[in-house]
Amino acid sequence: MKTAFMKQIALGTMIIMGMMCITCQKSKEELALQAPETGESEWPIFRGDTRLSGVSNATLSDSLRLRWTFQTEGEIKSSVVIENSTAYFGSSDGNIYACRLDNGTWVWTFKTNGDVEAAPLLLDETIYVGSLDGTFYAIDAINGRAKWKYQTEGQITGSANWFPSKDGQKKYVVFGSYDNLLHCVDSQTGVKKWTFETASYINGSPGIFEEKIVFGGCDELVHTVEGQSGEEIGAVDVGSYVAGSVAVSDHYAFMGHYDAKLVCVDLEKEQIKWEYGNEESGDAFFSSPAVGENVVVIGSRDGSVHCVEKASGRGIWQFRTRQNVDSSPVICNGRVIAGSEDGRLYLINLEDGSLIWSYEIGSRIIGSPAVAGNMILIGAQDGRIYAFGT
After folding, report:
1. What is the model's pTM?
2. Mean pLDDT of all residues in 262-273
């Protein structure tokens, strides 16, 4: 594994030296020309957008093939983000990596002092990501150099999100930590704008809708916080701790929790609208939901991918895998992309839950798929990123 990794480093170094860092110096417009020809070419944030909807408009083939892999020296729980034909992700070897989307060629590596489980956030050609070392980093997405660091008092496992200031002149980045705080910092300087204290750890990422920040945690509450002030608007007790992220759609929030329930919360009424779960055979939801126009799709530790009606929570179908599904599925043009700890990546028919295609990676998948153009990127516990396309 180490030898393969060093070969990739050497290859990347030769490219940089021989081509005078052409990849790093190209303008945004030039890089955009290298993007895949079909579908949406970017996936700049965990779950695809600030609402954490987990929905892509990309065009995928029903028969995908492995395009390339990229080896790191640790397990990959982080999900990939994509912009300017470059893929970015973290690894438990403590590094954040950038590689080319088309062929997996190494671009740069940034070292932290802890495992990186969170997916990065891409904003204004800057990578924002936290590490289990408790530090939140802002890194230049082009050259991999640190811009600033912000220290918390606990590990950071969830991805960051962002919103603009009232006048549109600034952008703020928000993320949770095991110090029980939701942190909001200036994206340019890393200076704290505010912190919001909860009663326990914050594991997942906050969803944002109309400058309202919605998130859950181990205090068993789903909080809604006003973005500009950091003041709480409301909180709903969902009955168990929320290990994943909260997706928002209009004034509804969707999340799974440890007590085997998928929950829809009405944020205006500050109450649970519906709950979905199987009392006899259900298990915890560590996955984050994908929220489509009419359905919600989520993975469970019962080994299944579940699809329910968005309006009512009525179950529509279940797709059974061979192990836990902590990976968060993505809805993509009538298809569901899902990884499982059974080591397989699945393409499922959204309408009826039937299998379209699968690929056996052979190592547990915990991270979530990223979709850009006609490609799917996902990491596995063997330390590799796998890229699938036509």
Report:
1. 0.88
2. 97
